Amino acid sequence: MTEKQKKPFFKSVRNYFKEYCKSTSIHGFQYFGENRSYFERTWWFIVFTITLSSCIYAILQVYDKWIRSPVIVTFATQETPIYSIPFPAVTICPESKSNPNEYRHIEMVQKFANNKSLTAKEKVLLKYMSLVCDDSGFIQLPDSDYIDENIYSALSSFNSQYPLFSCNYMGKKYECKDIFVPIVTDEGICYSFNILDRSEIYKDIVQYNLDFHKTSQYSNNQWSIEKGYTEDAGLDAYPRRALLSGVSNALTVRFVTLSYEVDKSCKSGFQGFKVSLHLPSRIPQPSQEYFRIPDNQAVMAAVSPNMIKTSKALTNYDVKKRKCYFSYERNLKFFRVYTLLNCKMECLTNFTLQYCGCVGFYMPRENSTKICGWAKQICMKEAESKLQLLSLRKLLDCNCLPMCSDLSYNTESSQCGWDWVSALFAPIENSSDAFILDQSLIASSKLVVFFKKSDLIFSERNELYGPLDFLANFGGLLGLFTGFSLLSLMEIVYFLSLRIIFNKRMYGYWAGKDN
């Protein structure tokens, strides 16, 4: 074919397009290549445009859902035995903060209120105890911006007689001091069971408080939230775990309190104990989350664990998309292990230090950080309120996201009066000896913590659409609306490349035969 015999370029393009329309597998395209009326071709063009627009809109909706909510939470298909997770850490805080034989808070407050002279030692002790006792609001206690580290030894020496009388776990009797360790919380000195050692929770920069929070004599941590217990963890693994559910496999603690050793003025007349159940790797905050054990009462706490895991497929997702952190993923300044509440505590600690120039005695701190005294308590409350307000207004972001794999303990508690005298000291029948005990001088209560069920069904975060799932949705919508497939794409590539090349070789012209 000579150059003169060649048809105009645009006419060749039209003929080549008609040839493609007759060959393609895309629905409706063949009508564009037929020699039909303009009305018919216009009608098909409108129908095809509407169909293609609807298809694009549906694909964009699927893509937007994939971008906004790439994670879906589902339930596991089978139950998991309860011994695969640790027994909750149980932190017990006595309402009585001091032994009246060592320190009488009410007397100190009355002396100060009546302008009676206090010795230098009494003033210092009042400053210490005012940080753990309730604020009466009627008097202004001694001003003190900062206090020294002697507060910890003072709280320890003034602490009431050890309140844990007897302890049983999994049907075995223990000395309470062997399984409960004293720790410092926002409620003063408390006693915690099954909590991790401070060296496994805090980093080395944290200033430790005397011998509080030391559990390393039991064993090293053999459990992690992502991997569970190690393969070599036996029945005596730490953190401890319950093999079965029910009261026979519970933690049972009996308390004994002597009335003449209780200073009721410190906690506005409240008596008994506060109990907080939490993850072993988390620092408790008993002033905010607790249930109470009154004197002469038996409290049963049935625990239902709530666990959520995250599939490995989500590890490659950006944190902003999955909206959670793995425990090893977020680096904290004071804590070795990331938890949501540990992160919030660190954020509050840093903000309080910046706002007030000091931190609470129960907060993690470095050696050079000052401890807030009584005069700074209002500042600390303002700092906490301001931090919450700034977070709500999104002016300050602590970046404390939930854990991707998390474990919490939901508790159903019930209580009733406990006639412990009759139960423990009932006289032997026909015995001439009668045991008489004045219950006004002594009080006793009991706590029983146990798993409600032997199995749990955990939740799991999974990706809503993986790459193949999205491709299947994408291709499914294209196929539904237009009949488009991967072969349809290859047809387009073929007509734009190979067919043009071989038309040139076979017919001497890129558009093929002149027909």
Keywords:
515 residues; 31% helix; five-stranded antiparallel β-sheet
Structural class: alpha+beta
> What value does the Rg take, in angstroms?
36 Å
Low-confidence stretches: 428-435
Helix content: 25-40%
Strand count, sense and closure of the main sheet? Answer: 8 strands, mixed
Percentage of β-strand residues? 15-25%
Distance between the termini: 13 Å
Number of helices: 14
Provide the residue-averaged pLDDT: 83
Question: Outline, from the CA principal axes?
Answer: elongated
Number of strands: 19
List the helices and strands and how they pair.
Blueprint: H1 9-23, H2 38-68, E1 71-75, E2 80-81, E3 89-94, H3 105-113, H4 120-129, E4 146-147, H5 150-158, E5 164-169, E6 172-174, H6 176-179, E7 180-185, E8 188-193, H7 198-201, E9 223-224, E10 228-229, E11 251-258, E12 273-278, E13 291-293, E14 297-310, H8 319-322, H9 340-356, E15 371-372, H10 377-392, E16 406-417, H11 420-425, E17 442-451, E18 455-456, E19 459-463, H12 467-482, H13 486-496, H14 498-507
Helix pairs in contact: 2-12, 9-10
Would you kindly provide a written description of the structure presented here, covering whatever features stand out?
The chain is an alpha+beta fold. It starts with 8 loop residues before the first helix and ends in an 8-residue tail after the last helix. Strands 1, 5, 6, 11, 14, 16, 17 and 19 form an eight-stranded mixed sheet that branches. A hairpin with a 3-residue loop joins strand 9 (223-224) and strand 10 (228-229). Residues 428-435 have low confidence and may be disordered. It has helices at residues 9-23, 38-68, 105-113, 120-129, 150-158, 176-179, 198-201, 319-322, 340-356, 377-392, 420-425, 467-482, 486-496, 498-507; strands at residues 71-75, 80-81, 89-94, 146-147, 164-169, 172-174, 180-185, 188-193, 223-224, 228-229, 251-258, 273-278, 291-293, 297-310, 371-372, 406-417, 442-451, 455-456, 459-463.
